[in-house]
C-alpha cells in the first residue's frame, strides 16, 4: 500500500512538472508526423548518401527527442532542444515547429552488424526501421512511425565491397562515403507570434567536422537574386554551433527563409528553414 501511495505522489508531481513546462503555449502541446507513415525517403543534397531517411515532426513546443530503431534496437538518438531566455518564460508562445531528423540508410546498416541471423529479404537482409518521437517537456507524449518500406529506396542498398572497382578507386570511395557532410537535423519551419526570440537548428555529421554557414535566400515570399549572409541582418545571431537565434522584435518581415550549408573538404549538404511570424 505504501508503495502504491509513493507511486501516486511521484506521478502527481511528474504531471504537475510537465504541465508547468508546457503551460506557456497558447494552443497547448501537440506532436504529429508530417507524413502519414512517419519515415520518408529524402532527395538529399548530400554527396555521401544515396538513400537518406527523414523523420519529419510537427510539434509544439519545438523540443523533441527522436530515436531511430533498427530491428527493435535503438541505434541513434537525436534531440532538438530549444533556447529559453528568462524573460521569454513569461511570454505566451505558439511554439509550433517542423523539425526534420535525418539519417543515412547505410549508417543504420553499419550500426547493427549483428544481423546475420535475421530472416533474409529481397535485399539479402531483414530491416525493420522505425522512428520514435517524444516531447522533451512531456515524455509521456510519444509517437512511433510505421516500418519503412525498403521498396521505397531510390536504389538497392549496396556496400562498397560489392562494387567492382579497383583497389585505389574503392579506397577513395570508402573515404568519401565516410567523410562528406550530411545534415542530421534541421528546423524546417517555425511559426511564432512576432516579438519572441526563437532558435533555428542545423546539425550535421561528417569527418572532418563540417563547417555550417547560413544565408538568407527569401524574404516575405520573394526569393532573393543572390543569397545574403546573415551577418547583414542584426536580428539574426549565429551561436557558432550550427544554430541561430532570431530576435523577431527587430524585424518587420512576415516571413523569411534561410539556407543551412554544411561543408568540408569532401563535399557539402544543404537544407532550408522558413520562419513565419504572426502579428496582431
UniProtKB/TrEMBL annotation:
Q: Which residues form the signal peptide?
A: 1-20
Q: Membrane-spanning residues where?
A: none
**Keyword Transcription included in the entry's annotation:** no
Q: Which UniProt keywords apply?
A: Signal
Q: Which InterPro entries match?
A: Ig-like_dom, Ig-like_dom_sf, Ig-like_fold
Tell whether Signal is among the UniProt keywords: yes
Q: Which PROSITE patterns match?
A: IG_LIKE
Ig-like domain: residues covered: 181-278
- Superkingdom of the source species: Eukaryota
According to UniProt, the name of this protein is Ig-like domain-containing protein
Q: Which organism is it from?
A: Meloidogyne graminicola
